[in-house]
Design brief:
Blueprint: H1 16-24, H2 33-46, H3 67-77, E1 81-87, H4 95-99, E2 106-112, E3 115-121, E4 128-132, E5 135-138, H5 143-146, E6 158-163
Antiparallel strand pairs: 1-6, 2-3, 2-6, 3-4, 4-5
Length: 166
């Protein structure tokens, strides 16, 4: 299933964790800055954050959430079950290695240091999609995994497996 992409006008905002949550919980994709601000306001209420949180932050830091906050939001929206399947260790794989070992027909929120991605694996392991603020990446445009400083070479901090009702 191909999901709606993040609009280019919103890609400068650092809401990668929230975007992964939007994909996982199947929430409506914000189409404007105003709708994104509404989501920020809603999430601040759910997480009991102060009014000033993210207010004066640069766009790249606006909307940043942590792993525990991601899990709390998944629990709040209750659109899917979830399970923390991998936490950082000294032997943690890179995203590029992990993606080849992920289960078929599955979805994940993957945390890489200060970034989060939503990953879907199709019926065949090579049919994966990575959803990010920059767009949707597949095996056909996997250069984003290869390039220097790219996400494919970053070690995984945590993986949350998303389980939808059967």
């Amino acid at each position: 299933m191909v999901r709606q992409q993040c609009p280019k006008s919103l890609s400068k905002y650092g809401f990668c964790g929230i975007l992964a949550l939007i994909y996982a919980a199947k929430l409506p994709m914000p189409s404007s800055i105003e709708k994104l601000e509404d989501i920020f306001k809603q999430i601040k209420g759910i997480l009991s954050m102060g009014k000033g949180k993210w207010k004066s932050a640069n766009p790249k830091n606006k909307g940043a959430i942590t792993l525990p906050q991601t899990m709390k939001l998944l629990q709040h929206y209750n659109a899917c079950q979830f399970k923390l399947t991998c936490l950082e260790t000294s032997a943690s794989p890179t995203l590029k290695k992990w993606i080849h070992s992920a289960e078929v027909r599955s979805s994940y929120i993957v945390h890489l240091g200060r970034h989060a991605l939503f990953v879907e694996i199709g019926a065949v392991k090579s049919k994966w999609r990575v959803y990010d603020q920059g767009g949707v990446y597949t095996k056909q445009n996997a250069s984003f995994l290869e390039k220097k400083g790219g996400y494919g070479k970053k070690k995984i901090k945590a993986v949350i497996k998303i389980i939808y009702g059967k």
